TrEMBL record:
Residues 60-100 are annotated as: Disordered. Keywords: Membrane, Transmembrane, Transmembrane helix. It comes from Nocardioides anomalus. The chain crosses the membrane at residues 31-52. This is Uncharacterized protein. It comes from the Bacteria.
Length: 100
């Protein structure tokens, strides 16, 4: 059983919502706060969320700083002393030559 559009229109009231035909004036301060304040607050909160952890760790965030040297993310904590090297030609540790 399908309802025709006229039957649906009879069941559902199709009045214009209150305030749509005669909208109230918008306060300019309210409009500036909503349209300018919310995006500015969002921008500032994202900037604080990005920069605050590095500032708390004491890192420098000034532009033009030289890149951090000898940074190996996820590498050994004590330096390269933990890495094993190929000591003899018969070693099974691999190496730059790629022979196993």
């Amino acid at each position: 059983m399908t309802l025709s559009p006229s039957a649906i229109a009879a069941l559902v009231p199709m009045d214009v919502p209150v305030g749509w035909s005669d909208p109230k004036d918008v306060n300019m301060v309210h409009a500036l706060l909503v349209l300018g304040g919310i995006p500015l607050l969002l921008f500032l909160s994202i900037a604080v969320a990005v920069y605050l952890p590095s500032l708390l760790r004491g890192e420098r965030i000034a532009p033009g700083q030289p890149p951090v040297e000898n940074q190996w993310i996820g590498g050994p904590r004590t330096g390269t002393a933990e890495l094993t090297s190929r000591e003899t030609a018969d070693s099974d540790s691999g190496g730059a030559s790629g022979r196993w």
